[in-house]
Write a structure and sequence with these properties.
Layout lengths: L10 E6 L3 H9 L5 E7 L3 E3 L4 H5 L9 E3 H4 L6 E5 L2 E5 L4 E4 L2 E4 L2 E4 L3 E3 L5 H6 L6 H18 L5 H8 L1 E4 L3 H21 L10 E4 L11 H13 L2 E4 L4 E5 L2 E4 L4 E3 L2 E4 L3 E3 L16 E2 L12 E3 L4 E2 L15 H19 L14 E6 L2 E6 L2 E4 L1 H14 L3 H17 L14 H13 L8 H22 L6 H35 L1
Parallel strand pairs: 1-2, 1-9, 2-5, 9-20, 11-12, 11-17, 12-13, 19-21
Antiparallel strand pairs: 3-4, 6-7, 7-8, 10-18, 14-15, 15-16, 22-23, 23-24
Helix pairs in contact: 1-9, 5-6
The protein binds flavin-adenine dinucleotide.
């Protein structure tokens, strides 16, 4: 097997995703009698709360990332494999990944969430999300490259599009990135670009509801709005973005804002898992779990963190826990204990969420914090925010690097990481990725095409059920047309499967 992991007499726990939840679980299983395999599509753990600082040149990407192999270097009966989950085969108890198959005794899905564009293709094509370190580096490059172009472009209209920044989503990430870009405009741009009129740069923060930070206290909402306005951010409440056309963000009320820096941070949906029953899914594609994070309908599959939806666990979180670091970490820790309990036929402990509060920083000396049933705003909240985040970053080197960049930035009003840096994938990696995508999407009985076909089939059933639910009788000709289309598609799929199988056989023969 390409994973190159020998089976042992211990049961195998496979954890998919080494984010906050998966990492906590893997660490807490240290003394348990399991063989633990952690897979992640990256070779590092990332710290999302500071991603916005990478996007705005305040921090270096490596300061908020930490290699998995370093975290687990002396660990026994533990394996890390850099691999991407493709599908789960619950009956056969194995997962298909970008590097091959892996059997499991217990499977824990901790692969988080992705940006939700709410099905709007135009917005998805144009907007820049900010969920990962990679995306934040892309955003930093876009912001800096747009500034560079703005001093050389020939039309006023293009210049305005390049200078305007539109951020959609008034949650903590939107508020933080808006504040950081405003500080860049106020302190860095006038020095870096003396030939650019910084005051022509407008930063818009758009929120569909009546206040920023809707998950926090009213005081936090009011203060953050006040701080942002003081920094010169245009806060637009009760506004909904519906499209992006001709370099303009289009709002539901007809307003159009020209921009080429269109940042989308207004919602997430859980990452897709192929192979689980439809009944396992709840709102926002999250996996329904019981009080010990076991996925609905399965005895040996668990989900924790952003991807999990635990309903009715306590009065305050009837609709599920917030998609934040603490629920993921606490679920990881609780599941570690429960996996051991299950193995030893002992009583399991239901998950109980301990809410440690919420914070957001808007700029130097400006933050809001709701902690211990108290609400703070200003300098104290800002210091608290810094201490909490510094403590949570993995690795002494990273803590020092972050503290150094923060201190430098505070004293000089500068951002030292404003290089436009893009990695070029060497041929050796490109070739490997091509081979992996061809041969490890699935074996003969599970090609990517079959997975696609499976997905399309369940989507078709879903829409038929939707039609039934709202009592719509589809027109007979439309139904016949659809049937014809599906038949043609199926024939194509069958042809493709045949071709892939022949290719695979040829390849097997060659070796
Ligand atoms: C910009 C930003 C700022 C945030 N700020 C805060 C904050 O200040 N406070 C707070 O509490 N929360 C914050 N959050 C939310 C918090 O980061 C998440 O709720 C938390 O990370 C969820 O943990 P998780 O373990 O479920 O998933 P994640 O931490 O997202 O980890 C998922 C892991 O799975 C891996 N993965 C994904 N797909 C696959 C696949 N197919 N195969 C293999 N591996 C895969 C990823 O590489 C990643 O390592 C922020 C999130 C973002 C994006």
């Amino acid at each position: 097997m390409s994973f190159n992991i020998e089976s042992s007499d211990k049961k195998r726990v496979v954890i998919v995703g080494g984010g906050f939840g998966g990492l906590r679980l893997a660490l807490d299983l240290k003394k348990a009698n399991f063989q633990v395999v952690l897979i992640d599509k990256n070779n590092f753990h990332q710290f999302p709360p500071l991603i916005y600082q990478v996007a705005t040149s305040g921090l270096h990407p490596s300061s908020i990332s930490f290699p998995f192999r370093k975290i687990f270097e002396a660990r026994k009966d533990f394996y890390f494999r850099m691999a991407e989950l493709r599908a789960v085969y619950p009956k056969e108890k194995y997962i298909q990944t970008s590097i091959g198959k892996l059997d499991y005794d217990y499977l824990v899905l901790a692969n988080g969430a992705k940006t939700n564009f709410f099905g709007n293709k135009n917005i998805e094509d144009a907007a820049m999300p900010m969920k990962t370190v990679g995306e934040s580096m892309g955003l930093r490059n876009a912001i800096l490259s747009n500034f560079e172009r703005s001093v050389t472009c020939s039309t006023k209209q293009e210049r305005q599009e390049l200078l305007n920044v539109v951020i959609v989503g008034g949650g903590p990430t939107g508020v933080e990135v808006a504040g950081a870009i405003a500080e860049m405009r106020n302190y860095v741009i006038p020095k870096d670009y003396p030939d650019m009129e910084a005051k022509r740069m407008h930063i818009y923060l758009i929120q569909s509801s009546d206040r920023l930070l809707p998950g926090m206290s009213k005081k936090a909402s009011e203060k953050s709005e006040q701080f942002l306005k003081k920094l010169g951010v245009d806060v637009l409440l009760y506004k909904r973005v519906i499209d992006y056309k001709d370099n303009k963000v289009i709002l539901a009320d007809g307003m159009a804002i020209p921009t080429r820096t269109f940042i989308w941070v207004c919602g997430v949906s859980a990452n897709d898992i192929v192979g689980l029953d439809k009944e396992a899914y709840g709102a926002s594609n999250r996996l329904l779990v019981d009080e010990i994070n076991r996925v609905k309908g399965y005895d040996d599959i668990f989900a924790i963190g952003d991807i999990a939806l635990m309903l009715d666990s306590d009065a305050k979180h009837k609709q599920g826990h917030p998609q934040m670091a603490q629920p993921a970490i606490q679920q990881g820790a609780n599941l570690a204990k429960n996996l051991v309990a299950l193995e030893n036929n002992k009583k399991t402990k239901p998950f109980k969420y301990r809410d440690l509060g919420c914070m957001a920083t808007i700029g130097r000396n400006k933050a809001v914090a709701d902690v211990f049933k108290m609400n703070f705003a200003g300098m104290f909240a800002w210091l608290l925010w810094m201490v909490v985040h510094l403590r949570s970053i993995l690795g002494v080197h990273n803590k020092i690097a972050v503290l150094l960049d923060w201190t430098w930035g505070y004293l000089t009003y500068d951002r030292s990481n404003r290089m436009i840096l893009s990695a070029i994938k060497p041929k050796v990696i490109l070739k490997r990725e091509e081979i992996e995508s061809k041969y490890h999407w699935g074996s003969i009985n599970s090609t990517s095409i079959e997975i696609d076909a499976h997905k399309k089939h369940s989507e078709a059933l879903d829409s038929l059920n939707d039609l039934k639910e709202i009592n719509v009788t589809p027109d007979i000709n439309t139904v016949l047309d659809n049937v014809k289309e599906v038949e043609v598609e199926l024939k194509d799929i069958e042809k493709e499967i045949k071709e892939v199988k022949e290719e695979l056989h040829d390849e097997v023969k060659k070796h």
